Amino acid sequence: MLNEKNLLLHICCAPDASVPVPDLLAEGWKVRGFFYGSNIHPLDEYKKRLDALKILMRHTGIECEVLPYDQDEWLEKISGLENEPEGGRRCTKCFELQLEAGACAAKKLGCENFCTTLTISPHKNVNLINALGEDLSRKNNLVWQNRIWRKNNGFLRSVKASKELGLYRQNYCGCVFSMH
Question: What is the pTM of this model?
Answer without folding.
Answer: 0.96
